[in-house]
Amino acid sequence: MSTGKPIPRFTVITLGVSDMRASIAFYEALGFARKFGETGEAVAFFDTGGTVIALFPWDQLARDATLPDQPRSKTFRGTTLAWNCNSVEEVDTVLDFAISCGASLLKSAHKTDYGGYSGYFGDPDNHPWEVVVAPGIEVCDDRRVHLPD
Fold first, then answer.
1. Segments making up each domain of the chain, as ranges
2. Is residue 5 classed as helix, strand or coil in its secondary structure?
3. For 58-102, how does the pLDDT look when each residue is reduced to its tens digit (9 = 90+)?
4. Which among 55, 96, 98, 117 is most buried, taking Cβ atoms within 10 Å?
5. The dihedral of CA 38, 62, 123, 111: what is its sign?
6. CA 29 to chain CA mean position, Å
7. Can you give the residue ranges of the VOC domain (predicted)?
8. Phi, psi (5° rounding) for residue 39?
């Protein structure tokens, strides 16, 4: 048994969803590649280029985490997902595209106080996604975000 510190890694974001079929269709429409499809509608995994988005029935995920699944808040839950872009035009394109796939517009794109440009959409369960271009943050061809040291 190793006595050294474990190497930190962030691998999967699991979203509790109320309708697996609708959420799977939404994330496929956004263009995320579904992997390990033999899981059917029990759980769904999508490649994001560095981490994985997993979809799992809301009540089962709450039970697994030993948390109550009711009441289901329609308010902010303290977490957002982000889709970083390389230009203002790309932010607008992504927001329009997400809306065309069934997302709800939570906040129109606008200039930010830190010199970026950002807007928000909600997925079918209203998990908020920020679509953003931020100074100093680059998205490379490998779809990974590269941060300055």
1. 8-69, 78-149
2. coil
3. 999 999 999 988 888 878 888 999 999 999 999 999 999 999 999
4. 55
5. negative
6. 14
7. 9-134
8. -75, -10
Which residues have CB under 8 Å from 19's CB, separation 6+?
124
pLDDT at 125 over 80: yes
| Fold annotation for 8-69 | 2,3-Dihydroxybiphenyl 1,2-Dioxygenase; domain 1 (3.10.180)
Of 121, 112, 118, nearest in space to 91 by CA? 118
What tokens does 37 get? 């499809």
Q: What percent of the chain has pLDDT over 90?
A: 70
Across 116-128, average pLDDT: 96
- Domain pair 8-69 / 78-149, same fold: yes
Nearest-angstrom CA–CA distance, 71 and 138: 39
Superfamily of domain 78-149: 2,3-Dihydroxybiphenyl 1,2-Dioxygenase, domain 1 (3.10.180.10)
Separation of alpha carbons 65 and 57, rounded Å: 12
Three-state DSSP string of 65-80: CCCCCCCCCCCCCCCC
Which of the pair, 146 or 92, is modelled with greater confidence?
92
